[in-house]
Amino acid sequence: MLRSTTFGLLMERTQRQIHGVCLVQAMVFPDAESFDRWCGCEPLRFEDGLLFNKLVREGHAALAHIR
After folding, report:
1. Is the pTM of this model over 0.70?
2. Intervals of the chain under pLDDT 50
């Protein structure tokens, strides 16, 4: 989930495991530079390139509304 906020880009990621365990991570990126740094080290870019590219596109689009 990506959403523009007054603080920056809010990204929330939910990972569900087979045994019912659920991990929720929430991150706020104040600007495109911090979002791009995070994207540069995100393993998803290798695991699912299509999803990663969608995340980057939508993240940049949401950040454009903050400026």
Report:
1. yes
2. none
